[in-house]
Amino acid sequence: MPIWKDISPGGALTDLRTVYREAGPRRWLFAAAAACVTGSIFFLMTQQEGRGPPRPNTVIFFDSWRADRSDAEIRKHILAVQKQTDKDNAEEARRAEDVRQMYKTLGRMSGMDVDAIERQANADRAAEAKAKASAAAGVAGAQVPVARR
């Protein structure tokens, strides 16, 4: 290990002793102040509380299906999967609402008019949904030209 050949514990202690002696008569005051600041920072860090982002969903991969499954077994499995999907969607909606409430609280604390922002966002979403619906209706009712030979 080439890094350790240049390091001498005796030299490090000698340097520490030299700096300590040159620090002057108030070295204990500076050491106490540094210890108080460091201790205060660590104390404040231990008092903090926080929530991280929600854990990602678990992905389950199916390798294959049994070839001899009956229609009843397939229906039963589909219902079980649908119940789990509904449960997952409800949990996702709850998490999204929690995040929305956190942002609303942050906005109110910042002095924003959160209710007006939400009304505008809802109006924008409704206009976008209406535009998509009219575009889909226009495409569904459109005449498709047919090339003739």
Which terms summarize this structure?
mainly alpha, 2 domains, 4 helices, single chain, 149 residues
Q: Outline of this structure?
A:
With 149 residues, this protein is mainly α. Helices cover 69% and strands 0% of the residues.
Describe the structure.
With 149 residues, the protein is mainly alpha-helical. The protein folds into two domains: 41 residues, no CATH class; 65 residues. The relative contact order is 0.03.
* Multimeric organization: single chain
Give the strand tally: 0
What are the segments in which pLDDT stays under 50 over at least 5 consecutive residues? Answer: none
Largest sheet: none
Tell me the span between the first and last alpha carbons: 83 Å
Query: Globular, elongated, flat, extended or rod-shaped: what is the shape?
Result: elongated
Helix content: 55-70%
**What integer value in Å does the Rg equal?**
33 Å
User: Can you tell me the number of structural domains?
Assistant: 2
Percent range for β-strand residues: under 5%
Query: Helical element count?
Result: 4
Overall mean pLDDT score? 85
How are helices and strands ordered from N to C? HHHH
Kindly name the structural category.
Answer: mainly alpha
